[in-house]
Write a structure and sequence with these properties.
single chain, mainly beta, five-stranded mixed sheet, four-stranded mixed sheet, 1 helix, 11 strands
């Protein structure tokens, strides 16, 4: 019984030290003063291993991307993106054609959507712009100049869009 206990403890400690395994790896950081209206974007997931996958994508909206406002004026707009989930996420800003419904972009074989036409992203932990993803408990930010129209805010890491990580932003 003692040997079994030691094996279990070693297994748990070994799992907690690895990277990218769903354990929290918080890096608290503060964004600088951001220009223009600020859209606070929250990225979350249910936590734990990705279960219930079909064809490499999650079902049932197990992940969420939410914004604290649905409309902003045209011009410079800043996005402060906070990852409250247990795995890395990102924000990509895509124009949304007038005839398209949010959340209906085709998902490719790599479990991602086409980012052609992207106007920018926040995917850099504790920094501005593009990077390798915003780690759990951290933030990233970006300031973009947006023309009036509709935009889709998405997380485009594999499987995340299909799991519900999208919302609409209207620029007036």
């Amino acid at each position: 019984m003692t040997a079994l206990s030691v094996v279990v403890v070693v297994g748990v400690v070994g799992g907690a030290t690895g990277g990218g395994n769903g354990f929290l790896s918080r890096q608290n950081c503060a964004a600088p003063s951001l220009y223009g209206p600020v859209v606070n974007v929250s990225l979350t997931n249910m936590g734990g291993p990705l279960m219930g996958q079909r064809n490499g994508m999650m079902n049932g909206g197990a992940m969420r991307l939410t914004a604290d406002r649905a409309t902003v004026p045209g011009g410079k707009v800043s996005f402060l993106v906070t990852n409250g989930g247990s795995i890395s996420h990102e924000l990509v800003v895509l124009p949304l054609p007038a005839d398209q419904v949010v959340g209906t972009r085709p998902i490719g074989g790599d479990a991602r959507i086409d980012e052609a036409g992207s106007v920018g992203e926040a995917s850099n932990t504790c920094a501005e712009g593009a990077g390798q993803g915003i780690v759990s408990g951290s933030s990233g930010w970006v300031t973009l100049t947006l023309a009036p129209g509709r935009y889709e805010l998405v997380c485009n890491l594999p499987g995340h869009y299909g799991a519900g990580m999208y919302t609409q932003l209207t620029v007036s």
